[in-house]
Amino acid sequence: MSRKKQRDKAPQQGAVMRLIDRALLSHLRAIDEEYIDPKRTSDGKILFSVYASCLLLFALNYVVLDLEFQRKVAGWLVRRLGLWNSDGHGITRNEMRLTMRIAWTLGCFTLYLIIPTFLHVFILKRPLKDMGLGLRGFVKHSWIYALLFLPVFISVFVVSHDEAFQSTYPFYRNPESWKHLLAWEAFYGLQFLSLEYFFRGFMLNELKYRLGWRAVLFMIVPYCMIHFSKPSLEAAGSIIAGTVLGFLALRTKNIWGGVSIHVAVAWSMDITSLWQRGWFDRISGN
Asked: Residue 26: inside a domain, yes or no?
């Protein structure tokens, strides 16, 4: 390469590096400066939080995702609460499937939110505000999540034509009425609140005091793995989405942005799938 070309290329490289520094590296340094302080945690707390996370994910996979467990919990909900049994004739098979899905969301709520909250407050002796539940940071940075949601929504609309997508979503396959659909989506949203609380709150909370932004790298591995049962594009996208949401949670000290974008994406996936399959036309014609 000639000297002239080298001189011409140097300012371009400098500009690119300055852009990267401003867009990414400066924020990573800010996370380290904000959190890294070995005195704020201990080896015991680090070990406890990591292994507790492992055991909770183990229980999620081998207990909550087990269909027999979901069936038993659903049966208890029907008997105890009388779900859907307004006319005294029992529930339909489809309503039982919906109740099993609700049992799944309640299992996620327990393992992702209830138990981690107990461990966080009573075992690790941390204030609940450390889990990123304040609204101030969410309101201030809500525009970032709105910008992130737009391209994802466009992608969802494009892939909603795919048979694999339609065969996966919604998880409650054939809602019998608007009441059933709204009940499902409410509990589905609760599941995503619990998921964000666990991955972007509990899993990062102790590690951030030793690792800073690198704590996100440890969180992203199991987060990616829970998506392995999903379509391949969604599983691949979870790596990027989980990383971005992890960095934003540390930077903004808030998980509500991640909750909002997760719920918005999930609901849009269900709605577009039902729309492609003509569900809205059928239900309005009844």
From this structure: no
